[in-house]
Amino acid sequence: MASLRGIKGNLISYLALMLLCLAGILYGQSLEGRHQFLRVWDIATLAWMGVGIPFLFLQNSAGIPDFWETGITHRKRLLYPLLIGMVFGALDVFVFKILLHPEPYTELPPFLQPFPYSLLLYLAGAFEVEVFYRLIPLTIFLLLGKKLAQARYYSHFLWTAVILTSLREPVEQLPSGDWTIIVYSLFTGFLMNFIQAIVFTRYGFISSLTLRLGHYLLWHILLGAFVEYVELG
């Protein structure tokens, strides 16, 4: 049975993330008209994040740790996922910036946003992806695995959910162009999502969110700051 303390931690963390998203919306609105490719969440997007709240009560029932489950070290929950995410971010910077676009940008491209606004925007983006690609689908799959046939086929549900959720993002964001870039994007996208699904089921939502934030830290935030303040001056 889920503990009240664990559920309370889930709710507080989730609502804190929603408040940070709201702060990002307000900050982004203050920047509108000053940047050509500025991306700003709206209140409707924030409201949709409320869909994830009922699943916060079901983590232990589905065999998933609560956000701040006792017995899981911060190294496993935060440090190692962050470092793994940064490896994927460094790979993307190397391939897409150093190899494919070594020349300076003349303006911030759409996948980069002005710093420090980018901190809030990509936190919100990571939060959204992890709710709809991990929290909701994996909880549903694993809860079914727990309830059907006295959990006899739980491992089947687990690995089916891990593979399907790992395929979603790389297929949805499949690039066009050279086949080597397509293969690279599919492989690294699947591998990162696969690792995220594993750490989600073992260490909880915060671990998968932290891994994605490690990726975004290098690929979106620090690269964006470098382009904005060094290449664009």
UniProtKB/TrEMBL annotation:
The chain crosses the membrane at residues 12-28, 40-58, 78-100, 120-144, 151-167, 179-201, 213-230. The keyword Membrane applies. It comes from the Bacteria. Keywords: Membrane, Transmembrane, Transmembrane helix. This is CPBP family intramembrane metalloprotease.
